[in-house]
Amino acid sequence: MSRFVVLLFVTLAVLYTAAYAKKLVCDMPNEEYHCGSACQTTCATLGQPCPIKNIRCNDACYCKSGYARNRRGICIPVQNCSKRRHAVPLLRLDSILY
Signal peptide position in this chain (predicted)? Predict the structure, then answer.
């Protein structure tokens, strides 16, 4: 009897969650909903692998192919990303005071 009650409760909980779960709406330009990586494609990280390994995919709004998020979180064409994203500041040894 108790197994039946537990099974009934779990079934009702799953059905309620599925019926009333809020659907994620991607309403920003150049975004689409899909199940993807933990890392968003951003201008700052273009070409870098995601350091996070997922057990399952993440439900989220991602930039469409050919787009990346800028600093404000807006998906823009990757060719519009700043060219400075790969620039690494160099330490000049002659500027160090001993």
Answer: 1-21
